[in-house]
Design brief:
6 helices, alpha+beta
């Protein structure tokens, strides 16, 4: 059963099984892994801490367009850094707004020690918002209250 927090926190929508690589791995290996797993990025870690990202966009801009060899390049040469991370207890609506402001499509999710615990993408946030809207709609129907009264309750509970 989902809790109220699961309807609005990153930990309720994030991907928990995230593929990571080392900064000394080759770009071609990351590209092959991304293709094989049908994913749009890999997180580059040192220990358990994220230090960079390699995205499809990075591959296009920093490797293909510049005519560089993915077989020779290391991830540390083309990864996006520094990495903006987010804690799992963050509300996903402001996280989506932060993505828009920063011009990024994903955030690594880290615990209090800075260790990687997941990844949240724009798609995850959209799916979370859809789930939240369905939940709110169900609450309205079952509570038989007006939309105005429900919005006031949400404001009081700091959901919106």
């Amino acid at each position: 059963m989902l809790t109220e927090e699961d309807y609005r926190e990153i930990k309720g929508i994030m991907q928990k099984n995230v593929l990571t690589m080392s900064e000394d791995d080759k770009v071609i290996d990351a590209a092959k892994l991304m293709a094989k797993k049908s994913i749009s990025c890999v997180i580059i870690t040192k220990g358990k801490k994220p230090i960079g990202l390699l995205t499809e966009r990075d591959l296009i801009k920093r490797v293909i367009v510049e005519g560089k060899s993915a077989e020779k390049l290391l991830l540390k040469e083309v990864m996006s850094k520094p990495v903006v991370t987010i804690p799992p207890e963050s509300d996903f609506v402001p996280a989506g707004e932060l993505m828009k402001r920063k011009g990024v499509r994903r955030f690594p999710v880290v615990d209090d020690n800075g260790n990687l615990v997941g990844l949240v993408t724009q798609t995850d946030i959209l799916e979370g918002i859809i789930r939240l809207v369905k939940h709110l709609d169900w609450k309205l129907v079952t509570m038989k209250i007006s939309v105005e009264e429900y919005i006031e309750r949400l404001k009081e509970s700091r959901i919106i």
